[in-house]
Specification:
The chain is an all-alpha fold. Helices cover 81% and strands 0% of the residues. The protein has 3 helices and no strands. The radius of gyration is 15 Å and the shape is flat. It has one domain.
């Protein structure tokens, strides 16, 4: 678990640095993809999923 959290934090740091640089290259996209896979295997996955679902439901209920 400790190794997984360390990898997630490292990938998160790299993803934030890549986003601040501006351009998204293939290597940057791979880091973001790996971050998603590692986040899916952590204990935060259900919280992230329910938060995204709630946000999507709220946005879909808005009428212009």
């Amino acid at each position: 678990m400790a190794v997984s959290i360390s990898v997630v934090l490292l990938l998160l740091l790299l993803a934030v640095l890549f986003m601040r640089q501006g351009g998204l290259k293939i290597s940057h996209a791979l880091v973001c993809m790996l971050l998603g896979f590692y986040l899916a295997s952590t204990s935060m996955a259900p919280t992230i999923s329910s938060g995204l679902t709630a946000t999507a439901d709220m946005v879909s209920s808005l009428r212009p």
